[in-house]
Amino acid sequence: MYVPGFGEASPEAKAAKHLHDFFTYVAVRIVSAQLESYNPEAYMELREFLDTNSVSDGDKFCAALMRRSSRHMNLALRILEVRSAYCKNDFEWENLKRLAFKNVDGHNTKLMREYVLETSHVETDPDK
Fold first, then answer.
1. Which helix or strand (DSSP H or E) is residue 117 part of?
2. Would you tell me how many other CB atoms lie within 10 Å of the CB of residue 77?
3. Higher pLDDT, 113 or 125
4. What is the rounded distance in angstroms from the CA atom of residue 128 to the CA atom of residue 116?
5. Residue 36: which residues within 8 A CB-CB, separation 6 or more?
6. Does CATH number 3.40.30.10 belong to domain 11-91?
7. Separation in Å, CA 121 to CA 55, 63, 118, 124
8. Has this prediction a pTM greater than 0.90?
């Protein structure tokens, strides 16, 4: 189906970009949790970096982390490694598809039901 208004990128390409950034977010959470238990100093460095740098653009975040210091470079490399592994091995792609279908169908049904109830005012006589 042709979808106008997306320029050169398809809706799927836009969704892939959002997933790419989301995988960075997930990798940062995983690495952060790992560091918290075995390397508190690196954990604090990552937390401090997160306080001043958004993860909303995953590549921009990792690029900035790499350039901060050699210790930060190692953190960035670990995040890149975890991001790739999570995407390829752990993310449940079929579950995503199933949940997307379920959410679209469920929300469509809910919205239609609400509209019908709102617009079909059936008068009820309280004495009957």
1. helix 93-119
2. 13
3. 113
4. 24
5. 43
6. no
7. 48, 58, 7, 9
8. no
The residue length of the chain stands at: 128
d(CA 69, CA 79): 15
Q: Which of 32, 28, 25, 21 is nearest to 59 (CA)?
A: 21
Write out pLDDT tens, residues 82-94. 999 999 999 999 9
Angle between helices 40-52 and 11-38 (to 10 degrees): 140
Q: Where are the domains of the chain?
A: 11-91
pLDDT tens for each residue of 65-124? 999 999 999 999 999 999 999 999 999 999 999 999 999 999 999 999 999 999 987 665
